[in-house]
Design a protein that fits this description.
Length: 503
């Protein structure tokens, strides 16, 4: 297709979808076929400035909008997303590669956060203590911060933007979103639906771009808080740069998620869970199981694990029956293939090699890698030490539950982990002793629903408060404590008191 004829993704500034004046653009590409779908601009410095200025102006009125009115916008928004979920999933699958069913799941997990935002009335409540001294009450107000910004990754282009702007805006902030430049189309469709739901001009703005735009957001004096989700390298940079500029920052970053398998686990359910988690979304989930730690007699389950993985069908996300779609880009495919080669060089056993899966026609050009399994993996090997972010499962072994826990606790990452067992005592020991922020018990991808917060830990996170749940209300608001004394009209004036006591 002629590049000039491709649709150009607009920016959103002050309620208007506007064409960027940038001279720098990149293509949005279907990773299954390399078909070009659209062009996305790298916004200019002036466009970033205009988006932040619109958000700053809108904040002066939006912060005073009553909480019920804010909540009703999100009630309408969740219905609009629900009504459009199929077409949103189709767009998402075309630009990101995941299967249609999984793309619908991506939208749905974001929709749940919008439902949570609609509940803002009972979330953004302060505390009150009556009579803390004679006639004195103390109470807290959770007030919006101002302009907040969000920077999102390619792997959940619906869910992760929806982790951010609905909660920030529901709290009374205004927002500038910087979606992934690799798959911004579904994000923009969600943004259009947000406008349709009644988000006023300037309250939500979108700029596209890469490093330069992200740095401009980190440095901008009018932005009070930044939410980032993406790789550890970029997240660490964003955290350092934006905190140095005085902002509140939360960064959810890379992972290496281990699942311990004890021999008393339900074998069939466990193997299905491992295979689904490791290879679903082509392994491009930050909470995917990427290391299986087989303990004791469970070490004998490898042939059945490999047999199940072999049954998965590799293909385009929009084809019926596909289990594993492509990885996001040619460079991601090259990186994963190079790591597989490194695994062999480092001495791990390639029990299942997914490189060069058999595909026909246009799909031959796609970024496909089939399920890949290494056994005999040890710390110090590149496939263990690095986040692969592709359909590669590393299998390692431990003599005992204690050894397996020690292995996981020695790994720097803390995003997610799981145990498969039928022993309540073993599960309880695991949840108590494991140093990872999100724990599954017979659940391979333990991402909390929005009643709770996303609580990755250690090297997988910078900043104290996580996305959604109750924690994000504290992230997107300033707690103000008011101590108030009211006198009865006929009370005695008393004398000057030069001591600190309120009594
Ligand atoms: P990425 O870090 O490459 O990109 C994330 C965002 O940062 C994008 O918007 C991108 O445009 C921007 N960016 C890229 N390079 C930059 C640079 N040099 N300077 C400033 N900004 C830059 O991440 P990705 O490849 O899009 O996503 C995959 C990563 O995200 C994986 O590491 C995965 O584990 C992680 N992730 C983590 C979570 C979590 O909750 N912990 C969730 C999803 C994804």
């Amino acid at each position: 297709m002629n590049t000039q004829a491709l649709p150009c993704i607009p920016l959103l500034i002050n309620g208007e979808l506007v064409a960027s004046r940038s001279t720098e653009w990149r293509d949005v590409v279907n990773p299954a076929t390399q078909e070009k779908l659209a062009r996305v601009p790298m916004a200019t410095a002036g466009e970033v400035e205009a988006a932040v200025a619109a958000a700053r102006t809108a904040f002066t009125t939006w912060r005073k909008v009553p909480i019920g009115q804010r909540a009703r916008i999100f009630l309408k928004y969740q219905q609009l997303i629900r009504d459009n979920i199929k077409s949103l999933a189709t767009t998402l699958s075309a630009e990101q590669g995941k299967t249609l069913a999984d793309a619908e799941g991506d939208v749905f997990r974001g929709l749940e956060v919008v439902e949570h935002a609609a509940n803002i009335g009972s979330l953004q409540m302060g505390e009150r203590a009556h009579n803390v001294a004679v006639g004195v009450d103390t109470y807290t107000l959770l007030q919006p911060l101002g302009v907040c910004a969000g920077i999102t990754p390619f792997n959940f282009p619906a869910m992760i933007p929806l982790w951010m702007f609905p909660m920030a805006i529901a709290c009374g902030n205004t927002f500038v979103l910087k979606p992934s430049e690799q798959d911004p189309m579904v994000t923009m469709r969600l943004v259009e639906l947000a406008l349709e739901a009644g988000i006023p001009p300037g309250v939500l703005n979108v700029v596209h771009g890469g490093e330069a735009v992200v740095n401009a957001l980190c440095d901008h004096a009018d932005i009070k808080a930044i939410s980032f989700v993406g790789s550890t390298r970029v997240g660490t940079h964003v955290y350092e740069r934006a905190t140095l500029a005085g902002k509140r920052v939360q960064c959810m970053m890379g992972a290496k998620n281990h699942a311990i398998v004890l021999a008393d686990a339900h074998k069939e359910q466990t193997l299905n869970a491992l295979v689904g988690s490791a290879f679903g979304a082509a392994g491009q989930r930050c909470m995917a199981v990427s290391v299986a730690v087989l303990v004791g007699a469970a070490r004998q389950w490898v042939p059945e694990l490999v047999a199940k993985a072999k049954l998965l069908s590799v293909g385009a996300g929009n084809s019926a029956g596909t289990d594993v779609g492509p990885v996001i880009s040619c460079s991601a495919k090259e990186r994963v293939e190079a790591l597989i080669a490194r695994g062999v060089e480092d001495g791990a056993t390639l029990a299942l090699d997914g490189r060069l899966p058999p595909l026909d026609g246009r799909l031959k050009e796609g970024n496909f890698i089939g399920p890949t399994i290494f056994t005999g993996v040890k710390p110090g090997m590149a496939v263990y030490d690095q986040e692969i972010f592709g359909p590669v499962l590393c299998v390692t072994e431990a003599e005992s539950l204690d050894d397996a826990i020690a292995l996981i606790n020695a790994n720097p990452n803390g995003n997610g982990t799981a145990i498969f067992t039928q022993s309540g005592a073993a599960a309880r020991k695991f949840e108590d002793e494991i140093d990872v922020g999100q724990v599954g018990i017979n659940v391979p991808i333990p991402v909390p629903v929005p009643l709770f917060s996303f609580t990755g830990s250690r090297a997988s996170k910078l900043g104290d408060l996580g996305p959604y749940g109750k924690q994000v209300i504290l992230f997107y608001t300033q707690t103000k404590t008011v101590t108030a004394r009211w006198f009865d009209d006929d009370s005695v004036a008393g004398a000057v008191n030069t001591t600190i006591s309120l009594r």
